[in-house]
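mind reviewing both lines:
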Amino acid sequence: MTREEQLEFCKRCTFRKMDMKQGLICNLRGQKATFQDECPDYEVDKKIIHDEKKKIEAIRPNKKRAEIAQALIWLVMLLEIISMISSYFQYDLLLALQRDEFVSNQIIDSNDIRESVIAILYMIVYVVSAITFIQWFRRAYYNMNIRTRTVHSDGWAAGSWFVPIISLYRPYQIMKEMCTETSKLIKTKAGNSTNDSTVIIGIWWTLWIISNYVGQYVMRSAFKAETVENFLNSTIGDMIQSSIGIPLAIITVMIIKSYSAKEEMISEIESKIE
């Protein structure tokens, strides 16, 4: 039995374990899955689908989810632009107050109402967008888990976004795994080479982390703001967050679009299987 055959053999066993450093190992022996003969401890994992046609039947459609996720992210980006413009007007207003210039209560009230409406709209759209993105993300990872065994479960693809500490790196690992493995699948099934670079994923995740930290700063500053200087700092932070959010939205859409195209390519290849 070749090493590749042994690995495929072990992938079907309930005693397998994925080690982040070693890769696939036997959980009973604590060794890499490179045995030359069939393992006496082998126990078939009935959850794994081996038949190619059954795999295709188990795949769930994800194109619509990708389209909805992209549309909502574009809407978030639009609100980021509106928010940045509104924040600039507020910044200009606060500078006038800092210089002790006269500003009528009507102008101040109008500014507060405008900022509140934008903030509420943004929060609603952002939450809905996050939900649709995670739904697409989980479905994509579920489908990949059907086609080739993944490191984590599709439940982790959704849950990892909400677990402290783990949320700082696990979604990135899963997205990187998705892009790398789909490229490998396309090459294996059709012999076509696709762009498997993960640089854009690194940029995407860096912007996401920075945006989150800036957002936390803005939120804390807004709640504690009592002076004009406090409001100025909060407003500057808000503009910085929006300036990060705009390229973040564009890159996120690019990633979804690129991965969705790979999914469709694999589905097209699989549809030709008799």
In short: The radius of gyration is 24 Å. The chain is about 70% helix and 5% strand.
